[in-house]
Amino acid sequence: MSTRPGLTAMAAAATLLGSISLYPLFKGAAWVAPGIGAILVVSGAGMLVRRYRLPAALNLVGALAALNLYLTAVYTGGQAILLFIPGPESLRRMIDLLREGWDTAETFAAPLPDGEGVRLMSTLGIGITAAVVDLIAVRLRRAAPAGLPLLAMYSVPAAVRVESVSWLAFAAGAGGYLALLVADARDQVTSWGRPVFTRRWNETETGERADARPMTSAGRRVGLAAIGIAVLIPAVLPGITSKGMFGLGGHGPGDSQTITTADPLVDLKRRLVELKDEEVLTYKTTAQRPEYLRRYSLDKFDGNRWTYSPLVTPNSSKIKDGSIPLPIGQVTVRSVEVTTEVSVSGKVKDMDFLPVPYAPSRLEISGGDWRADDASLMLFSTNAQAGGKTYKVVSDLAQPTPQELELAGTADTTGYLDVPDTVPAEVVRLARQITKGRQTPYKKAMALQTYFLKNFTYSLVPDPPSRMSNLQAFLKDRRGYCEQFAATMALMARMVDIPARVAVGFAPGTPLGGNRYSVKQKDSHAWPELFFPGSGWVRFEPTPGGPGAPSSVGVPPWATPQARQGATPEPSASAAPLPSTGPDAGATPSGGPDDPRNRFDKETGLPLDQKKHDGPPVGWILGVLAVLLLAAVPFLLSEGARRYRWSRVSDPSSAARAAWSQLRADALDHGLPWSAAETPRSVQKKLADGVPAASVPLARIAHAQELARYARPGHPVPGDPRTLHDDNRAVRTALSASADRKTRLRARVLPPSAMDALKRATEKTFDAVEGFRRR
């Protein structure tokens, strides 16, 4: 069974090019080098298995075993046996690193910060993909299905990011897959049997098979056409919108459509970690002070994260004449009507949920099929985006007093009290301990809010992930950002029988003057909403402050009208004021403003004592050097083979053989025919006819080879090795001068003799190993 080095190399290259699609997942380029090493190790292990004709199943087993040794050497060598053999300590360390990487992926949004656990996960994933591609494409000779594991690498960034993978990354991966298909087609066609040679087809000294260029050319055309159709057709054809295919059909009575969108909390986490100053929208309001702009209402907690219930859009929820259904439960409390005019930046993509103050009652927006969810009053569209639009929304802002909330009593709102059984019991005990002695839901809610405001620190840089769940780690470390505060308070509220949900949107933003405000990406925010009969859903703010915190004026959002006008409410257990915060205020929890823990860098979001200093882009420099080194590999192999040939010359006979081997390599590099069946004189004549300027040195090289090949043993071969070396150089110069520019460039940058030299060296290595094994 052949080791198929050419097809193996192409499968490895396809995996390497496909792995480029993973770049959006990581902040740096530290994951690249280990990934390349994993591909090389897996490919080498596959060749070794094929060399000894082992069963196909062992192709994958051997590759994974080699990958295990490689991962052990790179990541847990200090605990391994002989630095690369797994042992109990190294396996335990490997599991810890994998758990650390998984926790980091759960804690941060992409791009993930660099760390050993993250690098181990990426290396493991790339290595497994390389093993599967090698098995399918090389061993099982099914190159087409090998695209599935390659496609799996594209699905990862597509699943966790809002933006798509760069078209350059897609083109690189598609090119690698096409090259793999072409290489497999060439190998399949030329292995059908003994070819019938024509003038264009000549068997080489090493038994090279027939030229399959016509078939490979057809394969390229078919592959490129398929990719073009796959990319262009979805861009040209209209999708299935709320009005049906091509706008036909529409929603009749009883028709419905389920709406899905990117995970709101993942998107929020990404925006907060990046802390970009890009403007999302501007708005003008008639309110005395700006309000939060809510996009999502998350009412379901699955034990891991908050999500919203599936939105089914019958005609009843379509916004007709601008009217929006009344908010649930907001029936007896005083409210203020506020008009907000919002202008969304044209750079914003994929915004199909509108940011509006709660609770919206009327909407004026042009274009698209905009709808309102009856339960949550989220405003969304099935066929339009808000980017570049200006819309006006009228909201009824509830104004409950603390006394009204005290008298609200309890509520049994279906679905808003659910707590999974998987929530740790110690979290339930903590929620009940915090609210112990509070008789009303309002006092319990205030106790929870006060607990977070007084005992926790705002931070975009959580402590290193631990083995405990994210919820337990947050409660133990007492530091985090708005998503964690909002999600934890809402869950604890449910534990003490208060209906709760999590709202995601934007903080009020930065004043521009004239009741106008600018909201930037770093103003993304999350907060809990608790339900009180008569007042409806009431917003609370447990986040102590920080770059993403709201612009509060020191009073709760539900304070009395007198407090809204500037009066400071009396401190009490039932009306604890919020700390003064803002998008640029930094954290202001315990310790005071001079506490280093509470000071953040505006650009990076890191504490000032952890601010990263700018330096040279080491990752990019190493990446460019790696690409240049990879591009230089063929040239280095060809040059190394030439030097190796002449380094072994010890007499005229060995010089003649070295000169003849070098002549063959130069002919292959310049696309000239070469047949092992012809005599040196016949080869000399054919080459001299095409390159007359090289006739004299060709004659000397051919004559020396004739004597070395056909002279009786012991007969001296006349000639000077230095002269034959110079003759080789003269022939190579003449061949280059007579070739076209494309051939000359290929001979220098991608010489075909390089692959031939690699193939010969590989065969000699395996022959040596086989000979040693038989001893």
What topology does this entry show?
Blueprint (H helix, E strand, L loop, with lengths): L4 H15 L12 H20 L4 H20 L12 H20 L8 H24 L7 H14 L6 H24 L22 H24 L3 E2 L2 E2 L12 E2 L4 H11 L4 E7 L7 E6 L1 E2 L4 E2 L3 E2 L22 E10 L15 E5 L5 E3 L6 E3 L8 E9 L3 H5 L18 H10 L6 H15 L1 E2 L11 H8 L1 E2 L1 H14 L4 E7 L3 E4 L2 E5 L3 E9 L3 E4 L21 H4 L53 H14 L1 H15 L4 H18 L10 H11 L4 H16 L10 H18 L2 H9 L2 H23 L1
Parallel strand pairs: 14-15
Antiparallel strand pairs: 1-2, 3-8, 4-9, 4-18, 5-16, 6-7, 9-13, 10-13, 11-12, 16-19, 17-18, 19-20
Helix pairs in contact: 1-2, 1-5, 1-6, 1-7, 2-3, 2-5, 3-5, 4-5, 5-6, 7-8, 12-14, 17-23, 18-20, 18-21, 19-20, 20-21
Protein name: DUF3488 and transglutaminase-like domain-containing protein
InterPro entries: Bact_TGase-like, Papain-like_cys_pep_sf, TgpA-like_C, TgpA_N, Transglutaminase-like
Keywords: Membrane, Transmembrane, Transmembrane helix
Describe it.
With 775 residues, the chain is an alpha+beta fold. It folds into three domains: 5-237, no CATH class; 404-513 and 525-549 and 561-610, C8orf32 fold, CATH 3.10.620; 642-774, no CATH class. The protein contains 23 helices and 20 strands. A six-stranded antiparallel β-sheet has the order 10-13-9-4-18-17, with no helix packed on it. A four-stranded antiparallel β-sheet has the order 5-16-19-20. A two-stranded antiparallel sheet has the order 1-2. Strand 19 (524-532) and strand 20 (536-539) form a beta hairpin. It starts with a helix and ends with a helix. It comes from Actinocorallia longicatena. This is DUF3488 and transglutaminase-like domain-containing protein. Residues 474-544 form the Transglutaminase-like domain.
